[in-house]
Specification:
Blueprint: H1 2-14, H2 18-44, H3 87-92, H4 98-102, E1 108-113, E2 120-125
Helix pairs in contact: 1-2
Length: about 130
């Protein structure tokens, strides 16, 4: 279909002036490449299957303790104030990112920087 569409555009451009013909030819080539890229991306996208949450396997994660020394430490051996984010608390933040959860915790701050098309996010932890 896109080849047929581009042939029609090419035939129309033949009747126009030489400079505008080049413009339409460029647009025709770009539209063909764009349609090809979209078709390729759609073919590579897996189908989404509707499932209930009850059918999804439950994953149990280990507790992670982050300390300034970067060594594994039991929560009971940590001298500083410790905040454990458990399953129930994570469920209250349902649908949010890890950054959204952490930036609401004491000692964490975030900074977003960026211009048009570029966004950088930084997360700082006071340990």
């Amino acid at each position: 279909m896109s080849v047929f569409f581009n042939l029609i555009i090419l035939e129309l451009t033949m009747s126009l002036s030489r400079s505008s013909s080049r413009t339409y030819l460029r647009l025709s080539i770009l539209s063909t490449l764009g349609l090809f890229a979209v078709n390729t991306a759609m073919a590579a996208t897996p189908e989404i299957i509707n499932t209930n949450d009850s059918e999804m396997p439950q994953v149990e994660l280990d507790k992670i303790v982050v300390t300034a020394t970067r060594t594994p430490t039991k929560t009971s051996n940590v001298i500083a104030q410790t905040r454990v984010i458990d399953k129930e608390e994570l469920q209250r933040y349902q649908g949010q990112t890890a950054l959204d959860v952490l930036k609401r915790q004491p000692g964490f701050s975030h900074y977003t920087n960026g211009g048009s098309g570029t966004t950088l996010k930084f997360l700082y932890a006071r340990l």
